[in-house]
């Protein structure tokens, strides 16, 4: 009975029993098979056709095809519609099938990975897809975790194991997980086979950082949490083996729950086209009704006079019925206002634009041999309309590589290189590195360029030696000596490893540790320190200290941490050194480096003994243990002596800061959504100038409850509203900004008009704010009650950083902006934790980095470096949008001009649904005569070249505002087409009336020839960029028209197929007359000149930024390329602690307990902590205040009296 109810079973809690397949099968849990593809063999055809017929035009053409099959109303052959319709459906289906094939291939590759499963008393290799809930599986070092498993035991003491979670949260530092004590000794196969524990836990969900469950075994129950779980997507590191029990499998794992669904993405132009097709269809019906009424009236008044020799058909019973049939006949004849060739051409253009992206050598990364790839062909023009970019941090903006760059020791800085004139020299790849050959244990990959520091070490400068001794002792790194002298450090974070590695290279090598000792190799001599205590890091302390006894018996305390915290605890004797060091710290921070302050203290033996007794007592109390320990740490960390400071570079990917600056100038808002801790994200924000010291405020939202988050957001929003409440200030500021806008946007009228709205103005005037929000706060802010105020506050800020967010929260933030701002969004990332965000955004970009290929496989576009995003959007995206818009405008123009001639002709042919042109011209007009010129325009046209597009990011703005193709422009194009069709018909009609020529076929040839020449000249005038291909296609198409015209009306074709080619010699006869050519010339001039005059006057009187830049480009054609004028903003005062990224509370206790020690290789892991953003720290230190605000009152007052600075386009004259 349970099996039959499985499909309807709603899981409220999960019951999993080890080694009990029959028991677990009752619940119909998902197997470990995953599926990211959309189709299979059976569902492909119906689902794909359903998706394609969501395009209104495809349904429209299907109805037309059905109508053409009715002989009574069809005056055109059915093949003129079915062939192109099938072609469009087939091309799109093949493309979709190819995309899905690669998804299937990826799924198959993952599902067929091997895993060791305990089956009938032995370990057997099984495919991942065959792993089931309740199975016990074995993992070995460097293997991916196959499913969400409960850790039972491992090769490490106390059931510890180490994992890398880069695929889940983007962090490459190791984390530690621990099995329950009761299961940690189940390392034997027999014991595992007899293990029959049952886990009752939460149902499948997407919360990566939370797990709640209970293990029932041997009549006892044991609580389970996230520290006991290994999630799918993690990698086992530095652990020989471990065993685990599968709790969640396949699509129910937390990783897959965060992946989101694969959705069918359509561009905004596609959606607009659907609306326009409905409009055109309504217009078509109106024309059909008008002509049908005309037919009825004509048949009633005039047509009955001709019934003697033109009798009605048997089916034609009355004039009204005749009008009814004429209505459907005209619907078929006039259907070419939206020809099926439009959609064929659009697909060809998108395919061509995709190849241009794939072939772009400037987006090719030679180091990894990775080219840019357009993985979908349907979204290219939307790349030119992006307003919001949502970016991951680790691996996307950064390389996640920390480098020891500079330091300040005893009031002197090291790290810069000076020439013989004592001038600072820029460090490049050619700069000579310091020679560390004196140290046999150095890391050969380490680079440092200031030789004076090595000289100070060799001269045994006591301050320098104590500085590096501190770095070698005060940390939680675990060493692994794989061979003699070959050291590998397992650090919780890259910056912690960078500091220890720096000490290693300067002669203070960290060799080994036990729970009681730390062994160093100091300048070649082995020295062992007794480790007396580790004063652990936490988010409030923002520092870490160790207490050691050196071989001489002296007790020393070494401390490192955020400068604001260390400076507060210094001995007065260090005050002068503190001021000097603070200046150095400001210099380091101005260069975007992460800083730490280092200090030490000599401890008295008796005082230490008393303090140690207090510490032992506080460690055993149950209530307020953390507070008591914190107070004791605070007590002993007073009166420190300052040693200096370190400066670490968190290496950004090449060109990140410049790319972000350029995209900001294009009015693209960049939000960073990262799984890293707050300070890590803020630090990168400063490094790439998303956060700057000249911002009015960096506002941090970190509330833990709904009320706290609501209060913080409301206060910020209210404060900013007060900032512009003074009407006189508001008015003058608005006028100032409007003036700047008119210069900066160079005549962009629509954009200027937008500033007249207060909401837009407010967004502009207070754009120098930044919002930083934590994951737990974001969870509350995304609730329906607060999501609107969150979005309003975020849109008032120039920079938004969301940290500690889950993959699903990333997708929710993107969805929030999509839903309420109705702006085009782009998400970019490189890990599996970014997949959900990439799928949710309008455009998903994957970076092929170090965190697997999940993001690339789920993306629409991929490349190797973040900096290529600038070229993808500002060059390829802008060109694609520009070309598609021009293509559509011209296409609608030429087809209205072509088709509406039939409408005017209806009034002169008795509304009989007689066509002006012969059937062959109607069939070939869009397929042969005008297809290639418009394709060439859509593929190769460009208003400015790629360098200019990057030089003037403001050129990107028209795409964001839909200025190049919208309902207004569509109306103007169709109006121009209608006017052209009117002139094309009535000028020859009037001329033929004067010439007393009554040859209908000569009349048709004249109009057809005029039409081909007019649309060819018009496309020539519309082009901005001529190539040999354009010339060939335009003038070649005109030549082909005449060749086909003369061939079809020749004696030879009549002799072969007399019924299909009856008009022998009409073209020769007609086009041999000078009067006909004069008519064609007159028609062409009258049709083209008005549009040409309007274009000339518009550019001359109301030039846009594009017009001005084109003029500038043409005037500089012979000059060499110039660099991009992007204003670089240097920070000068912010302090950022690198230490805050290195620790998590409780790790020091793990080291001193010895639980993570083993005889062989040792490893460690945990994620960073955090330090709130601070400014004006020196005043707070002197006042001995512990509270640090984001911005001082003084800077706040200054902000009210000035406008935020902004980079504008280079002035154009």
TrEMBL record:
GO terms for molecular function: ATP binding; ATP hydrolysis activity; flippase activity; magnesium ion binding; phospholipid transporter activity. GO terms for biological process: Golgi organization; phospholipid translocation. It is an enzyme of class 7 (translocase). The chain crosses the membrane at residues 76-94, 276-298, 318-344, 887-908, 920-940, 969-990, 1002-1021, 1033-1056, 1076-1097. Residues 856-1104 form the P-type ATPase C-terminal domain. Coiled coil: none annotated. ATP binds at residues 392-394, 496, 537, 560, 594, 674-676, 804, 810, 833-834. This is Phospholipid-transporting ATPase.
